[in-house]
Amino acid sequence: ISTVHDSILFDVSISDSDRVAEIIWTQFNKLPKTIEQYWGKKIPIPITGEVEMGFDYKNMTKIYGKSGRLN
């Protein structure tokens, strides 16, 4: 796991990539509810994320957008 500006990079095996992408997107998009549940703090703005996959930054494909899986 690594962060770059406003990105979080995960290095996972190809066989795990679809499941990991689903977990990351789901957990990120329910982050405000999780913060409120565990710390009692409400986040007054929506937090959304996207998931892209690829072997390098030049060859990325968006897998999840703001409203869910794209393909």
Structural account:
With 71 residues, the protein is α+β, with helices and mostly antiparallel strands. The chain is 31% helix and 25% strand. The protein contains two helices and five strands. It has helices at 17-29, 31-39, and strands spanning 2-4, 7-9, 51-54, 60-65, 68-69. The strands form two sheets. A three-stranded antiparallel β-sheet has the order 3-4-5, with helices on one face. The radius of gyration is 13 Å and the shape is elongated.
Number of strand elements? 5
Mean pLDDT: 88
What oligomeric arrangement do these chains adopt? single chain
Q: List the helices and strands in order.
A: EEHHEEE
Number of helices: 2
Overall body shape: elongated
Using only CA atoms, what is the Rg? Answer: 13 Å
- Write out the strand line-up for the largest beta sheet, numbering strands in chain order: 3-4-5
